[in-house]
């Protein structure tokens, strides 16, 4: 009597890879954040439509060149953040060469540079707030001040949250005995958030500083 051993057939086209639940959850959460900022934009345009003369007078006080330079810094931080993701994907938490050898930087070095650029963005925005307050633009002053500080202020809070996340990821890289896929996934998820914050600012920058 003979017995036959049946080998399970392999699925056509290779194995099925399930999506990472952490990444999917982050994308769903960011989708809700899109709705949040959509509400802020709706508020901004509604107030603007009711007070066009006020908007024309107050927006003329904005320092467009300072905001442009600050925008370049924030957008550039997305590039450095992505280089950090590339290092995390190859499971390289820290540099493999000298400090000035950027080609051999690890995730920590790229994320540290991203953190510095993001911190500069927040600091410059705080300076701009102080400058605008000195010109009479404040939250209780008028509808423009309320709309400007609420929209840009909430974005600044999101940037600050991203900076805290970078500190957490870099700290975990130093604490972890072995930098593996779990740590790399956390870094990738934070990059999703940071890129989202940058894209929101680009739209916000165009609307607040250039849309007349």
TrEMBL record:
Domain Heme-copper oxidase subunit III family profile: 24-212
Highest taxon above the source species: Bacteria
Principal location: membrane
Membrane topology annotation: Multi-pass membrane protein
EC number annotated for this UniProt entry: 7.1.1.9
EC category name: translocase
UniProt cross-references to InterPro entries, sorted A to Z: Cyt_c/ubiquinol_Oxase_su3, Cyt_c_oxidase-like_su3, Cyt_c_oxidase_su3-like_sf, Cyt_c_oxidase_su3_a-hlx
Membrane-traversing stretches: 21-45, 65-87, 108-127, 147-171, 192-211
One Pfam family it belongs to: COX3
Compartments where found: Cell membrane
SUPFAM superfamilies: Cytochrome c oxidase subunit III-like
Swiss-Prot/TrEMBL keywords: Cell membrane, Membrane, Transmembrane, Transmembrane helix
Record family assignment: Belongs to the cytochrome c oxidase subunit 3 family.
Protein name in the entry: cytochrome-c oxidase
Species of origin: Kocuria oceani
């Amino acid at each position: 009597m003979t017995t036959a051993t049946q080998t399970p057939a392999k699925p056509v086209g290779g194995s099925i890879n399930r999506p990472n639940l952490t990444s999917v959850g982050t994308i769903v959460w960011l989708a809700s954040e899109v709705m949040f900022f959509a509400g802020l934009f709706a508020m901004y345009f509604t107030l603007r439509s009711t007070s066009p003369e006020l908007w024309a007078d107050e927006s003329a006080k904005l320092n467009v060149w300072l905001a442009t330079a600050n925008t370049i810094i924030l957008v550039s931080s997305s590039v450095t953040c992505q280089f950090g993701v590339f290092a995390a994907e190859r499971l390289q938490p820290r540099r493999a060469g000298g400090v000035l050898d950027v080609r051999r930087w690890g995730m920590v070095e790229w994320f540290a540079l991203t953190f510095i650029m993001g911190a500069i963005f927040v600091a410059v925005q705080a300076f701009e707030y102080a400058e605008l307050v000195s010109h009479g633009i404040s939250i209780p002053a008028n509808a423009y001040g309320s709309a400007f500080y609420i929209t840009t202020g909430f974005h600044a809070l999101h940037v600050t949250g991203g900076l805290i996340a970078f500190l957490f990821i870099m700290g975990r890289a130093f604490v972890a005995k072995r930098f593996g896929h779990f740590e790399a996934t956390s870094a990738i998820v934070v990059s999703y958030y940071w890129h989202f914050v940058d894209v929101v600012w680009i739209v916000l920058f165009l609307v607040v500083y250039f849309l007349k």
